[in-house]
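hiii, so i know i said id send this last week but things got crazy w the move. better late than never?? heres the sequnce for the chain we talked about at the cafe, plus the structure i predicted for it. fair warning i was half asleep when i ran it
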Amino acid sequence: MTDSAANPRKEIDRKLLEILVCPLTKGPLRYDAAQQELISDSAGLAFPIRDGIPIMLPDEARRLDD
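okay and structure toks below
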């Protein structure tokens, strides 16, 4: 089994991370590679990354206080 088969996570493009902002606050996001999420501290939300694609919908986000 290759490393890519053992670790199905896809790395997110760094240039994409530089331009993405929180859809609610327009504030910066921080990348949590372990959880595969983009964190908006200002909104208190964690947006999931699925198959290397950030899901920037507030309805799909996890509240940080959970």
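btw The first helix runs from residue 3 to 6. thought thatd interest u
miss u guys!!
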